[in-house]
């Protein structure tokens, strides 16, 4: 099952899953997203909580509502989400790597070399 | 939004023992509430008061705007699934389901039969002869198929295995979405059930400790662990709700958000930091206090 993490608000996790699906193309722009009730049944979460996650993205202009039909992915959403994620990339991924490297005595040059090797290897 | 239930200053004393102590809250219509707390905290007494099976010592109860005691108009809209429901001695599963149909005006017989099949309930077997898990399943079927505007589950899944419990969560969510109603679920299995809850009520020793949106409680606390002296240094000036010490090592649970700044502060002292789950937080809030 797609278990929720009980250490963070579930509405944020729902919003992040929708964001992920937009970024990786599972939910293309102008596609309709599942209803809060469908999210509730699929993830076994409270529908009000799911609805809160969806409306968070609507407030941020990632989704928009077609009256009587449902919520859709706004065009340009994918690019905007990429930008948003890039801004967080340093604090979420780079900073912890630096902390761990420092703990292990890995120098900045060694870390940079590792990253270059990994990134170019793919 | 109107309230399905509202209580003010509700108190129940048994002799010198206060089981429910000046509790006030409201349950809004068509939401799912969790009633959490340790054994003996007063959860079952509270549910008995709401369903008029006990008379309050003091305070006020309104269910659908009315006093529930000896009020058939209100009571016909409530389904209360008890942990240890009593049935007449000779009743079979089918008799229980038939009887439930008389008591609940929204009873869906077809749905009840479908549920019975999903839980593999032997309709012709006497209730007395059921295993604990199947006995619990009977209550769950009654609770779901009654579609009562106020449905109260008191630890509905004693003895149920993980498969049956998951089936319950799934069915509850599906049926709630199709037929919204007010649900109050008391449970010990917070980790399993918390995602279903919109709102949590936590009681401890008869007092209401929390009355909040479940999502607002998630991520409210974090824990740091490492050398006791460093943990103590980190914890100074922060709100510690739980402290564990193991020789030179210690861990502290702290109210606050585990943001980047906090993570960095912990890392600078060589401490591990991790968020605290809803279940752990509740354990800390209702556990014995140390240090």
Question: Could you characterize the architecture of this molecule?
Answer:
The complex is a heterodimer of chains A (122) and B (291). With 122 residues, chain A is mostly helical. Chain A has five helices and two strands. In chain A, helix 1 crosses helix 3. The longest helix of chain A has 28 residues. In chain B, the strands form three sheets. A six-stranded mixed beta sheet of chain B has the order 5-6-7-3-8-9, sandwiched between helices. The longest helix of chain B is centred in the middle third of the chain and has 17 residues. At the A-B interface, helix 2, helix 3 and helix 4 of A face helix 6, helix 8 and helix 10 of B.
How would you describe this structure in keywords?
heterodimer, A: about 120 residues, mainly alpha, Arc Repressor Mutant, subunit A, 2 domains, two-stranded antiparallel sheet, 2 strands, B: about 290 residues, alpha/beta, Rossmann fold, Alpha-Beta Plaits, 11 helices, globular
**CATH architecture classification name of the largest domain in chain B:** 3-Layer(aba) Sandwich
Derived from helix and strand composition plus strand pairing, the structural class of chain A reads mainly alpha
Please indicate the count of domains of chain A.
2
Radius of gyration of chain B: 22 Å
* Range of helix content of chain A: 55-70%
Shape of chain A: elongated
Structural class of chain B: alpha/beta
Distance between the termini of chain B: 43 Å
Query: Quick one: CATH class of the largest domain in chain B?
Result: Alpha Beta
Query: Outline of chain B, from the CA principal axes?
Result: globular
The CATH level-2 architecture of the largest domain in chain A is identified as Orthogonal Bundle
CATH topology of the largest domain in chain A: Arc Repressor Mutant, subunit A
* Largest sheet properties of chain B: 6 strands, mixed
Q: Which strand order spans the largest sheet of chain B, edge to edge or round the barrel?
A: 5-6-7-3-8-9
Task: Kindly report the oligomeric state of this protein.
Answer: heterodimer
